[in-house]
Amino acid sequence: MPARMSESFILRTYPFREGDLIVSFFTRDQGKLRGVARRARKPKSTYGSGLERLSHAIVSYHQKESRELVNLNSCELVDSQSAFAPSYEASVGLDYMAEVSEQLLPAEEVNERHFRLLVAVLDFLRTGGNLWQGLNYFALWSVRLAGFLPDLPISLDSREIAREMLVTPVAALTPRDWTKETALDMRRYLQHQMESHIERKLLTPSILENL
Q: How far is CA 65 from the centre of its chain?
């Protein structure tokens, strides 16, 4: 089967055999896929930083019809998230975005709007946007794009923030003193809905609460 090239975000990697990695990546045109990156853990790996969490890359891969896992050929980095490395808070925030995407996105189902959500929020954070504002925006839209958005039994202030988020790009939201307490009840409720939907307790929210 000929190789395919897809614009992608790397969501998660797992060690596999000696020197290999299992890579979960979200493509713009094929949805979420999992594949094997041969020798990716070797010192002279050609993948470089292209397989880091939430790296924006052009991934080349091919797949046999009888196999669930694709084979990765190369990973050309488009945009790295290395600028966030010095900030522990931002690194945990990126872990949260990657974990939510990994758990909510079904395999091999195209979701252009979630892809654009990742692009928009990462651009917002990279240009100095407030971390909590970006994460609340991402959480709300992830739940909506996943196909479920229940009534929000939360405070009036949080409901007003949520309504604005659903009609306004993240970079154009009303300036506020965005701390993690700004919409804590909204984020906790959305988190509960995510975990009910995926039937799995997410790992990173408890770390975010302790920041």
A: 27
